[in-house]
Recover the amino acids of this structure.
C-alpha cells in the first residue's frame, strides 16, 4: 500500500542529505546578461524586472555616458543595432536618446507585435539602480563601456547600493579604478578565450579582483583549478546552449552569464540531486521523464509523478511488483512481473501496464510472455518498445525484446555480455548507445551500440533507474532506506563520459 506519510520537516531533513549546499560566495550565482534578454529587449526595465521575478543572483548591464553627462544603460556606442534610429550616445543628449525605441530589433527577431512588446526607451542607470534597491535578492553588475566609473560609483553611493552592486569589464584601467575608489565593491574581470591565465591571475591578485570571468570558448577545467588554487572565483560568459550550461555546471562554475536565465535556473535545480517527495514501503525500481516538466518514479508498489524539483503531482498504488518504466506520447508504460523476476522459464509471467501520464489512471495491460524470466525495464525508441528482464544462473548472455506500439513481439536481440546477476533491470537510449542497468555486487552498467553489439561494461549502479537527459548526461535513480520511515528515491545527473569510463 502506498505510503507518503513523512512530515514536511522530516522530508527536508533527508533532502538535505542530497542537495548540494546553497551556501556559497555571495559573489557567485546566475547572472542574467543584460537582463532576461531572451524574453525581453536587452538592457531595458522589462528585461530587468523579468530577471528579478525569476530570482537570479545578478543582473549584468552596460553603461555609457551621454553628451549631457547622463549615465544610460546600453551595450553599444550607438543605438542602431537595437533601435529604430542610429544615434551616437556620446554625441546625443538623453532627451534625444529617449526617442529611440530600443525594442525595435527584438520585435523583428522574435516576430512580436508592438502590443506584445511595447516600445522601450533607454533607461538611466539611476532608474535601474532604484529598481534593484527595492529588493534584497538580486544584485547588479555594472559594465562601464566608457570612462564613467567614478560617476557610476557616485550614483551607487547616492542610492545606498554599495552592497548590492559589482563591476565587470575587460578594461583593466576601469576595473582597477573601481577598486581604487570603492575597494569593498567586487570586481569581475572579463577575459577573452585566449588570455594568459597565469598573467591574469597575477594581475587579479595585484588589484584584489574577486573573479575572472572567461569567455566560454576558453574556460577549461585546468584554468578553473588554477583559479581555485589562487582563491579567485572562476566565471564564464556568455553561455546560452543547454549542453554548454550543463558542462560548466559539471565543472563547478558558479558564476555563469547567460541570456536565458530561466533555462539556467531550471538546469541548476535539476543538476543537483532531486529527491522524490515522501517515503515508500519498498524500494525504487525505475525512473523516466517526459523531457519537459515531470519525473516519473516506479516504486515496487506505487507509481508517482513529480515536478522537476521532486514535488508530487500525482500518485497511484500498484500491485507488487512494478519494474522500470518509460514515457511515450502522453502515456506511461511500466514493465511488470508481479514478484516473479528471475524465476526459471515457465514460472515467471510478464506484462506492460499502460497509464495516463498526467492522472496516472491505469488504461491497459499487455502480456509480454516472451520475457520468460520476468520483465524488468523498458524504453521507447524509434517507434518500438524495447523491454529487458531477468536472468537465471547458467545463461551467459542478456536479451532485449523488441515490440511494436501494440506490443506485438518482433524479435529478440542478444547482448554478448556474459552472465549478470538477475539480468537487466533498467534500459535507456542516449547519444547513440543503449545503457543497461544491472543488479549485482558490484552493480554494473552495460553498453551496446544501435545494433545491440556489446561495447563493454562499467562498475556503475544504474539498476534503480536510468533515463536520457541530454547528449552529455543521463538521469540516474537511486534509493536510500530510512529506518522506521521507509524508502526515499532520488535522481541525479551524471555525465555520460563518467559512466562509460
Amino acid at each position: 500500500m502506498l505510503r507518503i506519510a513523512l512530515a514536511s520537516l522530516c522530508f527536508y531533513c533527508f533532502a538535505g542529505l542530497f542537495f548540494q549546499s546553497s551556501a556559497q560566495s555571495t559573489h557567485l550565482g546566475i547572472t542574467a546578461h543584460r537582463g532576461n534578454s531572451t524574453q525581453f529587449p536587452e538592457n531595458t526595465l522589462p528585461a530587468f524586472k523579468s530577471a528579478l521575478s525569476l530570482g537570479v543572483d545578478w543582473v549584468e548591464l552596460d553603461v555609457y555616458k551621454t553628451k549631457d553627462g547622463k549615465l544610460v544603460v546600453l551595450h553599444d556606442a550607438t543605438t542602431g543595432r537595437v533601435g529604430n534610429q542610429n544615434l551616437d550616445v556620446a554625441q546625443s543628449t538623453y532627451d534625444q536618446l529617449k526617442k529611440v525605441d530600443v525594442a525595435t530589433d527584438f520585435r523583428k527577431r522574435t516576430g512580436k507585435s508592438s502590443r506584445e512588446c511595447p516600445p522601450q526607451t533607454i533607461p538611466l542607470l539611476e532608474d535601474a539602480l532604484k529598481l534593484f534597491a527595492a529588493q534584497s535578492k538580486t544584485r547588479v553588475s555594472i559594465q562601464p563601456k566608457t570612462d564613467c566609473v567614478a560617476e557610476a560609483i557616485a550614483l551607487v553611493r547616492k542610492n545606498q547600493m554599495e552592497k548590492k552592486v559589482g563591476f565587470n569589464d575587460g578594461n583593466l584601467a576601469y576595473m582597477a579604478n573601481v577598486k581604487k575608489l570603492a575597494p569593498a565593491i567586487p570586481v569581475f574581470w572579463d577575459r577573452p578565450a585566449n588570455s594568459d591565465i597565469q598573467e591574469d591571475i597575477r594581475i587579479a591578485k595585484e588589484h584584489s579582483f574577486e573573479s575572472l570571468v572567461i569567455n566560454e570558448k576558453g574556460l577549461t577545467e585546468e584554468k578553473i583549478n588554477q583559479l581555485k588554487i589562487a582563491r579567485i572565483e572562476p566565471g564564464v560568459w556568455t553561455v546560452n546552449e543547454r549542453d554548454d550550461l550543463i558542462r560548466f555546471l559539471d565543472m563547478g562554475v558558479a558564476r555563469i552569464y547567460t541570456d536565458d536565465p530561466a533555462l539556467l535556473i531550471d538546469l541548476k535545480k535539476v543538476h543537483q540531486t532531486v529527491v522524490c517527495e515522501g517515503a515508500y514501503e519498498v524500494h525504487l525500481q525505475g525512473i523516466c521523464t517526459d523531457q519537459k516538466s515531470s519525473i516519473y518514479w516506479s516504486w515496487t508498489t506505487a507509481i508517482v509523478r513529480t515536478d522537476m524539483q521532486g514535488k508530487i503531482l500525482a500518485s497511484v498504488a500498484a500491485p507488487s511488483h512494478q519494474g522500470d518504466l518509460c514515457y511515450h506520447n502522453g502515456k506511461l508504460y511500466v514493465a511488470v512481473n508481479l514478484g516473479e523476476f528471475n524465476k526459471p522459464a515457465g514460472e515467471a509471467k510478464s506484462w506492460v501496464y499502460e497509464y495516463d501520464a498526467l492522472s496516472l489512471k491505469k488504461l491497459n495491460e499487455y502480456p509480454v510472455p516472451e520475457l520468460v524470466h520476468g520483465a524488468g525495464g523498458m524504453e521507447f525508441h524509434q517507434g518500438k518498445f524495447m523491454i529487458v528482464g531477468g536472468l537465471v544462473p547458467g545463461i551467459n548472455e542478456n536479451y532485449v525484446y523488441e515490440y511494436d506500439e501494440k506490443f506485438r513481439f518482433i524479435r529478440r536481440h542478444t547482448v554478448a555480455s556474459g552472465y549478470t546477476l538477475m539480468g537487466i533491470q533498467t534500459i535507456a537510449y542516449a547519444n547513440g548507445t543503449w545503457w543497461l542497468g544491472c543488479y549485482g555486487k558490484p552493480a554494473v552498467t552495460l553498453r551496446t551500440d544501435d545494433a545491440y553489439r556489446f561495447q563493454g561494461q562499467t562498475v556503475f549502479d544504474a539498476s534503480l533507474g536510468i533515463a536520457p537527459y541530454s547528449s552529455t548526461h543521463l538521469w540516474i535513480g537511486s534509493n536510500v532506506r530510512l529506518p522506521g520511515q521507509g524508502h526515499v528515491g532520488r535522481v541525479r545527473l551524471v555525465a555520460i563520459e563518467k559512466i562509460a569510463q
